[in-house]
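I am still getting used to backbone structure tokens and would like to learn alongside you. To get us started, please write out a protein record for me. Once you have written the record down, we can walk along the chain together.
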Amino acid sequence: QVQFVESGGGLVQSGQSLTLSCVASGFPFSRTIMRWYRQAPGEEREMVATNLPGDGGSTAYAEFAEGRFTAFRDDAKNTMYLQMTNLEPEDTAIYYCNRLQGTSWGQGTQVIVSS
């Protein structure tokens, strides 16, 4: 059974940082393209970062994340991370991880950035 457990969200002030975690199970994590998504209130879910598997696997970022967010994984722990810096109120959303084209979702982790 495919499962994702996201954590690490919280309430922070503008300019501060957070690191989110996503523990995955039920599929071969180390060989799977993984993504971070987010969904702001009243908005569609959007892609934040796409992380390729393997040593030196590259990551592609949405324009709003480029230069501020870093996605990386620890295959030994079946865990993906999203390090977010210089957070802005516009980053307020529920953050999720998933496989590329995955259809099973975790509960997400809430990030609230106050100005």
Q: What stands out?
A: The CA atoms of residues 8 and 73 lie 15 Å apart. The radius of gyration is 13 Å. The first strand starts at residue 3 and ends at 7. The beta strands are 3-7, 10-13, 18-25, 34-39, 46-51, 59-61, 69-74, 79-84, 93-99, 109-114.
